[in-house]
Model the fold of this input.
Amino acid sequence: MAEKASIVTPNEPPKKQRVRSPEHPFINLRDAIARAEQFYEAEQHRPANAKVAMAHWGYDPKSSGGMQTLSTLISFGLLEEQGSGDLRTVKLTPTALRIVIDDTDSPERLAAIQQAAMMPKIHRELRNKFGGPEPPSDRQFRHILLAEWEPRFNANAVENFIKEYRDTITFAKLTKTDTVTSEVEDKGENDRVRVPYVPKIGDYVQWEHNGVLGLPESRKIQRFTPDGMYAYLEGQHGAVPANELIPEAAPSGGDITPDPNAGQRIQSPLKTSTMQEFVVPLSDGSKAVFQWPSSLSKEDIDDLRDSLKIVERKITRSTTESSDKGQANATEA
Done:
């Protein structure tokens, strides 16, 4: 019996694969905060089942809109989740509670909103690419998302995302105009509240911790950690909290000179200094300062390592002695 011939359609075009956009917020931050307020009205500080949370927003438990809204609030850092499946629960984060409970003109509330605006991963990545939160023109923004970004956006999702991003940074007062002119206008001259500074790559900044300046002079921001919470500065070892940076003018003398021995960049006003510095702000407002030459032999490094152990013992001993004296004085009294 002859085999049945299969029908082959010549030049049949391949099926077009659907482009899946990278994960991004479903709604803008203003709308996400409105959802957080609805959750707070119903549950306060308590956790709730994820399906119950979606019901508070008017969604069916199986609706895609409800799931996307839930994911968006998590990405903005407004909700934290625990468990999975039917046992999955969510509750408001400390950031969300500050935004929901604080007065609308509170500078701490605005700082929390600005932090939430940069919590989504794609927002942080775009911030680093743009050198700040404010994007380029819509035409260039669209080109980046469709042609340069990996994974690339679905063309049907681009316009909504561009609008979400712009709406979010405008609501969070992260636009260029808002970050430069940063005062609340409805207060008296002596009672103005300054909007928190939002640092960006290339800015010269000073590090202020508990009212103490932690740098000998201003330093330029080189990059941020992926979560946008810490910044790396020229000439500074390690990252510093981004929310503790304040804007400063560029240093008046010298430039940043590479140091090949330490693999870092150090400040050299006279181009003769080879000292490096590490500043540790302490809880009482004071600070500990460590300095060492950038060029060290192996023997020097070994000596310093041993010396640091001695310093540790001395710090521990002095703390113990102070505590013992305090207890003795209390006993005598």
About this structure: Residues 298-332 form the longest helix (35 residues). Residues 27 and 226 are 22 Å apart (CA to CA). Residues 29-176 form one domain. Confidence is low (pLDDT under 50) at residues 179-195, 254-273.
